[in-house]
Amino acid sequence: MRGRDVIAGLSIAGLMLPEAIAYAGIAGLPPQRAILAAIVGACAYLTVGRSRFAIISPTSSSAAILAAALASLPPEGISAGMLATLIVGMVGVLFCVISAARLGGLASFISRPVLRGFAFGLAITIIVKQLPVALGVSLHSSSIGALLIALLRGFAQWHLASLATAAFALATLLLLRKVPAVPGAFVVLVGGVGSSMLLDLPAHGVASVGTITLVPRWDGLGLPNWKELSRILQLAVPIVLILLAESWGTMRTLALRHGDRVDANREMAALGIANIAACAVQGMPVGTGFSAGSAAEAAGSTTRWTGLVAAGALAALVVLAMPLVARLPEPVLAAVVVAALAHALDPGPLIRLWRIRRDAAAALGAAGGVLALGVLDGMLFAIGLSLALLIRRLATPQLSMLGQLGTGHDYVDIARHPEVSVPAGMTIVRPAEPLFFANAERVLGRIADLPSLRSDGAKLIISLEESFDIDSTALDALLEFAGQMQTRGVSLRLARVRDHVRDLMAAADAADLIARSSYSVDDAVQMLEEETSRCRT
User: Do 493 and 518 meet the contact criterion of CB atoms below 8 Å apart?
Assistant: First the structure.
């Protein structure tokens, strides 16, 4: 453990406390549930998890879904508090199942642009949801658009003392960022308590945290029957989905920024263990929150022991300074959360995608989806959008016309290398995407319509270098295309044919197609030239 990790841990503890209190309020549960979950979750993660930026604690999105689950009809005979505990336990079990089944890799289907857009939208969402606390008004809404409209309409109800407290705390936090050796969040929390006592902020209407009891209350719980377990499973699945998306999105985004490697299955197991530990103390669902992870990054965390320091500091802060914590102004808590996410609002990564003209729609769709539809639906929308864009690209690939570069064996795109030469009478085509059931007939149809193939004795080479393997539909399309070319008198050769494709051709008794295949474009050209020479003689 390094000194930098200790400083980072202290800073993150100053963020975990306000987040825990805020997220417990979102779920409609006592603050101690979130605080205990953050302490044991961060400790339990160390047994398996390996991300140096992962701070395991309750998250805003999982808290919101838990609130919706508790508001629904609970299983008969189970209180809302016990239902929350059972849901957390089920979440932990499901994560362990995902890890054991080696399904963590499914999270990799979320592309980097989607992760960037998701992070941007999530940062805005969390910041907007802190505004009512900073303004001293009581407003709640699942839609940030509706929340902003309600805040603007209720302008007259804004509490100026609360707003001034939040603004001063936020300004102090941003200034302290210029001094990395100082745990800014911790310093501001201490300053908030001191200001509350010296200026008597509660007397001026500024809300404070109040007394927090850390002892869990077990009301007695029998083993649930199968019907109750089925209901609990239904309520737990959405939380697993959102924690999977948010946690892996945060871990992977931060790891990619710093060249770290994280294993999805291992991290899913770590989340499972952390949630089971949270269940044991009657906590809330826990995951890698984007704000805490971003705070760990901003504080310069170097190892995963930062989370342990943060958990220990949080426990010490609450146990040893409980009377002081009770005096902590809630607007200061909101300022700490906002400051932790401020750097995540940098539009630079999104602008870069727009500049290079790649995946900007997926990133903007992810950000807009989170803002318009909420975290879970927004992420699902973004994933669906990225898959739709991928399918569109695969289904309508570009065709590159190839020519020989100099006198070597390389054949490259004529459009990019106008200096190349094309062997006389030959047409060399390369589909830009792999051939598969959704595009094979369309691609080969476009090739068949090329004007150069309408002349007598035309020669055609199709480079399949992008097709590592093909399915049965693509194979049938190739066989039909070969028959069509033979009928038209076009000499056909296939180049860059992989062994997997050859094996499939052999299994389908397509010996003629194998005979027309070569491992390189240059070999295919030589075959056609030799065939032409034989015909002339």
Answer: yes
121, 373 contact by CB (below 8 A): no
Cut 0.90: pTM above it? no
CATH at 438: 3.30.750.24
Q: How far apart are CA 58 and CA 30, in angstroms?
A: 13
CA distances from 453 to 456, 457, 484, 515, 527 (A): 8, 9, 12, 21, 18
- Give the tokens for residue 306: 């930062």
SS3 content of the chain, % helix, strand, coil (to 5): 65, 5, 30
Say whether both 440 and 382 belong to one domain. no
Determine phi and psi for 413, rounding to 5 degrees: -65, 125
Within 13 A of 426's CA, how many CA atoms are on the CB side? 27
What is the domain range of residue 416? 399-536
Identify whether residues 90 and 29 lie together within a single domain: yes
Torsional class of 397: left (φ above 0), alpha (ψ -120 to 50), beta (otherwise): beta
Tell me the three state secondary structure of residue 402.
strand
The tens digit of pLDDT for each residue in 407-461 reads 888 999 999 998 999 888 899 999 988 999 889 999 999 999 999 888 878 899 9
Residue 413 burial by Cβ neighbours in a 10 Å radius (0-12, 13-18, 19+) = middle
Written as six digits, the tokens of 374 are 């909420």
> Does the residue 224 lie in any domain?
no
